[in-house]
Write a structure and sequence with these properties.
By secondary structure, the protein is an alpha/beta fold. The chain has 3 domains: about 1-150, 3-Layer(aba) Sandwich (Rossmann fold); about 240-340, Serine Threonine Protein Phosphatase 5, Tetratricopeptide repeat; about 350-485, DNA Cyclobutane Dipyrimidine Photolyase, subunit A, domain 3, CATH 1.10.579.10. About 45% of the residues lie in helices and about 5% in strands. It is built from 21 helices and 6 strands. It has helices at about 40-50, 70-90, 110-115, 130-140, 165-180, 200-205, 215, 220-225, 240-255, 260, 275-280, 285-295, 320-340, 355-360, 375, 385-395, 400-415, 420-430, 440-445, 470-475, 480-485; strands at about 10-15, 25-30, 55-60, 95-100, 115-125, 145-150. The chain has a 6-stranded mixed sheet, sandwiched between helices. β3 (about 55-60), α2 (about 70-90) and β4 (about 95-100) form a beta-alpha-beta unit. The protein starts with 10 loop residues before the first strand and ends with a helix. About 45% of the residues are buried.
Length: about 500
């Protein structure tokens, strides 16, 4: 047996079925790490295929009835299917891109493909509907199902428990980074693959046909024919591996050096723009870190001698690179950690006890205004900065990083109760944000209500000791003129 490349900590047996060595192929069910690079789940499927001397078959399916299914999210995933189809075809791997024409039309597809599989490997993702879908599949499939964690540089279960402070998580990251970085996924696993080839049966393809060419080509009429929410339109940027690589190259060339000083100013447009690609698994954290390391001429030998949990100084890179890595590796993976260890990751009961208590104590405080979910959704408040942030979400599927904090704080201020405000913030994020329905976006929303924060004085109406933010102070601190001109109407 060849040496394993995937750490055991990243592999989870979903069921106790046997591996069928006499079956036809190994099946990789791609549901979260929708990429052909730096993908532990793909590496694991290839390991099995090589050991068993079997072809590899990949199924990437897109349901019609998932929560918040819309033109926006469908188009982004389908863009990625186009890139994946090209890569797998060049590698001689059978790849089936299936897009449900009606809710439930794909029922039975996974089981049918698993009938000829030695085992099934899938992606382990800790939130949205994916955990329950994986568990349900494990009970139905006639073969072994493994879920493999390709979410971040640290395995999502590396700490063994949820972490409640960024400082503690950062310190753990710093202590174990070299160990986990040394066990990185294969950068180009399809290169020189050399596995036996196979094709899917005509009967299976007739029952569950591949995504039609018009849909893959981006024809609006093909997307309009699908039973998803057409009131949430596509965004102006594309999905997929090639678009992700272009976005990464643009960030490195134009924004990375400005990141530490200018990322909070909307007019400077110095953010990375990478979160949609990270959310849909079309770009990996490993590839981003490797690209920054190459640009900084950095190797792990340059790491600081002590893992103290400090935001700066550990990496021994320039300030902007360190600031970005803290967002990518500390804050993003802190959210992954929490979701992996908590089923109630976006509910009010998941907030720290102190913030639940103070918000409840001030739940009956008079509000400056009460806005319904519909008014908020339509960006119809008296606050021009908040309205602009909401319009950016509606049009572009994202909110500037700093303004997203103010956006969440104002929803709390205008909500009838803190529970209702949190529910509204999650709804707006999940329905419109391309990077929504994600551990990182839930971290950002719940932070507005006290998660990963501490109590702040003085005690204020509505907020109690939860950190307060105001549009007036935001306008004084940030360069906003161009942003308001763009999204203010």
């Amino acid at each position: 047996m060849p040496p394993a490349t995937v750490p055991a900590l990243r592999i989870r047996a979903v069921n106790d079925r046997e591996i069928r060595a006499a079956a036809t192929y190994v099946l990789y069910w791609m549901i979260a790490a929708r990429r052909t690079h730096d993908n532990f789940a793909l590496d694991r499927a290839i390991e099995h295929a090589k050991r068993l001397k079997k072809p590899l078959v990949v199924l990437e399916a897109l349901r019609a009835g998932y929560p918040y299914a819309s033109d926006r999210f469908h188009r982004f995933v389908i863009d990625g299917m186009v890139d994946n189809a090209s890569a797998f075809q060049k590698a001689g791997v059978a790849y089936h891109a299936y897009v449900e024409p009606q809710p439930g039309a794909g029922r039975g597809l996974l089981e049918a493909m698993a009938n000829d599989a030695a085992l099934v490997v899938t992606d382990d993702f800790p939130c949205f509907f994916l955990p329950s879908m994986i568990e349900a599949a494990g009970k139905k499939l006639p073969v072994r199902l493994e879920a493999v964690d390709s979410n971040g540089v640290l395995p999502i279960r590396a700490l063994g428990k949820p972490c409640f402070r960024a400082f503690d998580f950062r310190r753990s990251l710093q202590k174990t980074f070299e160990e986990h970085w040394a066990a990185s996924p294969v950068a180009a696993p399809l290169r020189g693959l050399g596995l036996p080839k196979t094709t899917l049966s005509a009967r299976l393809l007739e029952r569950w046909p591949s995504a039609p060419p018009d849909l893959l080509a981006g024809k609006p009429s093909a997307l309009a024919a699908l039973p998803v929410d057409h009131t949430v339109p596509v965004v102006g940027y594309r999905g997929g591996l090639r678009a992700a690589e272009r976005a990464l190259a643009f960030f490195l060339e134009n924004n990375l050096e400005r990141y530490a000083e200018e990322r909070n100013h909307p007019d400077k447009a110095a953010t990375s723009g990478l979160s949609p690609y990270l959310h849909f698994g079309q770009l990996s954290a490993h590839r981003i870190v490797r690209a920054i390391a190459e640009r900084e001429d950095w190797t792990p030998d340059a790491l600081g001698p002590r893992a103290r949990g400090a935001r700066a100084g550990f990496w021994n890179m320039r300030a902007s690179a360190e600031a970005f890595l803290d967002q990518l590796l500390t804050w993003r993976e802190l959210g992954l950690n929490y979701c992996a260890h908590s089923s109630d990751y976006c509910g009010f009961s998941s907030l720290p006890a102190w913030s639940q208590k103070t918000l409840q104590e001030h739940a009956r405080d008079p509000r400056p205004a009460l806005f319904s979910r519909e008014r908020l959704e339509a960006a119809e408040t008296y606050d021009p900065i908040w309205n602009a942030a909401q319009r950016e979400l509606l049009r572009e599927g994202r909110i500037h990083n700093y303004l997203r904090m103010l956006w969440g704080k104002k929803i709390l201020e205008w909500g009838e109760t803190p529970e209702q405000a949190l529910s509204t913030a999650v709804y707006l994020n999940d329905r419109y944000a391309v990077d929504g329905r994600d551990p990182n976006s839930y971290s950002g929303i719940l932070w507005c209500f006290g998660r990963y924060d501490r109590a702040w004085g003085p005690v204020r109406p509505i907020f109690g000791t939860v950190r307060y933010m105001s549009s007036a102070n935001t306008e004084k601190k940030l360069w906003l003129a161009a942003y308001l001109a763009r999204f203010g109407a």
